[in-house]
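User: Teach me something about this protein's shape.
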Amino acid sequence: MFDLSTRRLYLCVPIRDDLARFLPSVIGAGVDVVQLREKQHSDAERLAAAAVIGPICRDLGVPFIMNDSPELALASGADGVHVGQDDVSVARCRELLGEHAIVGLSTHSPEEFARSLPQAATYFSAGPLVPTPTKPGRSGTGLDYALACQAASDRPVFVTGNVSALNVGELVAAGLRHFVVVRALTESPDPARAARAIRSALDEALSEI
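Assistant: First, the predicted structure itself:
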């Protein structure tokens, strides 16, 4: 079982044609959790992508998380699942995947986090800190919310929302420790270089606390 408390840089990646090249390059540059986050493609297409992602993550010692569906997580041999507030319950995920699987749960408000904390999630996500195209229609939660979640939680809280090499150091200095990246890598012309820059800024900031 993976210890997520030591994992810092969590990538959400959609289905893309170059997964077999993209993933090793960004994992080698510092990504240490990978989620297949895909809202548009069919279950068959998601399983086909998972068949590429899973072996890469296993070979490189990185947990592989499936978004939304514990059934697909089970079918694909993923290390766990990430669900939102309106998806299948954490309890159902545990029923299907077992006590040792990774189960992540999204939160976007103090009320949601308070309801989530007693649940048997492995980790939580908090955010987005600012509005982002990956969460259309959702307003930013701000830094104070993420800090409050982390202070109240005995499990890792991964922060979402426009994390980049330019701001991750400031976020660490403010008190945050675990970060989700999406567009900073998936839309970069040089994903490995972008991942290396984020990880370098993150590690440097952590070394100073």
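Now, about its shape. DSSP finds nine helices and eight strands in the chain. Strands lie at 9-13, 33-36, 64-67, 80-83, 102-107, 123-126, 157-159, 178-181. If you'd like, I can walk through any region in more detail.
User: That's plenty for now, thanks!
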